[in-house]
Amino acid sequence: MKDKSTGCQPIAVVTPFLDKRHGTERCVVEQVERLARQYEVHVYSNRVEDIDLSHIVWHRVPALPGPHLPAYCWWVLANHLWRWWDARFRNLAPAVVYSPGINCFDADVISVHIVFAEFLCQTKHALQFRANPVKTWPRLMHRRIYYRLVIGLECLVYGRGRALLTPVAAKVARDLERYGRVARDLPVVLHGIDVHRFNAEARTQLHDSARRSLGMRDEEFCLLLVGNDWKKKGLDCLLEALGKLSNPSIRLLVVGMDIMEPYHAAIDRLHLNDRLMLLPPRPDVEFYYAAADLYVGPSLEDAFGLPPLEAMACGVPSIVSSQAGVSEVITHGVDGFILDDPRGSARLADLISLLHGDPALRQRIGERAAHTARQYAWDRNAEQLSELFKQVLARKQSADYAILRTGHARADN
Asked: How far is CA 223 from CA 12, 199, 305, 399, in A?
């Protein structure tokens, strides 16, 4: 049943796709499923997966096949056209338009998961042509053009002040200051986790079977990194740290999809071929958390970072970068560890060695990590977002009332 206090107000959620295999999209799926209890939710998207559509209306916007850059340009244009058509001819005018990131120019609320201007500043060296093999240059050029386009749109959308911006971490709020926003005035809505799915009990049940499936021996110490953009996730630093640890029983699982060519030279130089396993994403990502002894995420830049928080909820101790928003929920040395310099491979190697050599410390950190992570459930996230929608609705109603009164006053005169 819908919450009568909202009057079942229609909201439009504008996002290219929804599934639970990607960080931002997983966040929006969890939010939408909960918002549908209070609002009439209309999702404008190219594709939708991993979500119950029985209480949600999906408006399929056709996708443009091919490279991401023209597909993104088409998406921004097409979702405006589809929503205009529905408003003009189907009387479907949403009370609130919600977008994760820049998907349209008329959003009322935007959840900011990354500030590309800051991301480009942090990763500009990794995006240089001379730092990458020649065969990767076409893809690199595509990325650089795309990032520049999005930065231009950030100036337009984030800088003009129309939408209510809700960053996913205080770090992102500070990043938005480059567009004239005041960080302390921006309502931060931290990511959440599914506490029923990610927990220490589930990890214990899956642990033995997950390690057997991956061919991991009992005496091997398993590091885990989950993510798709490996430059951004700090794989360079992690490989260097692993190379400094001469113990061959310390192995690394990298879960995600990206090009491997930029890392071949380092892997050969550090003799890591037998200690590194590249694995594809899978819908039950908790399978990988169950196999891991330690999550390691030395991100160069990460607005939040769901995998470390999910790993923590499963009782897996985590090392995260100070440049990741998830570090804001961690107390260093209490429920996790924070790497101050995401390029500091020697310091990262020391932290990994510390945890590898002290099972009691791993147990203590893992238990406290699970307790911390349980405080950040998706219900909490969705309720905070709903409160922001109510503020926008109240502001719109107040503006409409003021316009109505002005019209009456002019008529009386």
From this structure: 40, 18, 17, 54
Spatial contact of 340 and 298, defined as CB atoms under 8 Å apart:
no
**Can you tell me the distance from the alpha carbon of 100 to that of 25, in angstroms, rounded to the nearest whole number?**
8
Of the chain, the end-to-end C-alpha distance in Å amounts to 46
pLDDT of residue 120: 85
Tokens 């209480």 sit on residue: 55
Helices (H), 235-298: 235-244, 264-269, 286-291
Q: What is the pLDDT of residues 190-218, one digit of tens each?
A: 999 999 999 999 999 999 999 999 999 99
Per-domain boundaries in the chain: 4-192+377-412, 200-373
Contact 292, 311 (CB under 8 A): yes
pLDDT beyond 60 at 387:
yes
How far apart, in whole angstroms, are the C-alpha atoms of residue 78 and residue 61? 7
Average pLDDT of the chain, as a whole number: 91
Entry pTM: 0.83
Give the pLDDT score at 400.
Answer: 57
Query: SS3 letters for 61-115?
Result: CCCCCCCHHHHHHHHHHHHHHHHHHHHHHCCCCCCEEEEECCCCCCCCEEEECCC
Exposure string for 112-147, b = 16+ CB within 10 A, e = fewer: bbbbbbbbbebbeebeeeeebeeeeeeebeebeebb
d(CA 266, CA 243): 9
How many other CB atoms sit within 10 Å of the CB of residue 374? Answer: 15
Nearest CA to 347 out of 337, 361, 357, 362 is that of 337
pLDDT in tens, 83-124: 999 999 999 999 999 999 999 999 999 999 989 998 888 777
> Do 4-192+377-412 and 200-373 share a fold?
yes
Q: Which class in CATH covers the domain with range 200-373?
A: alpha beta
Q: Span 4-192+377-412: which CATH code?
A: 3.40.50.2000
Name the strands in the sheet holding 221-226, side by side, starting at the edge strand that comes first in the sequence: 276-279, 250-255, 221-226, 294-297, 318-321, 337-339
Distance from the Cα of residue 168 to its chain's centroid: 9
Following DSSP, what letter does each residue of 168-236 receive, concatenated? SSHHHHHHGGGGT--GGGS------B-TTTSSHHHHHHHHHHHHHHHT--TT-EEEEEE-S-HHHHTHH
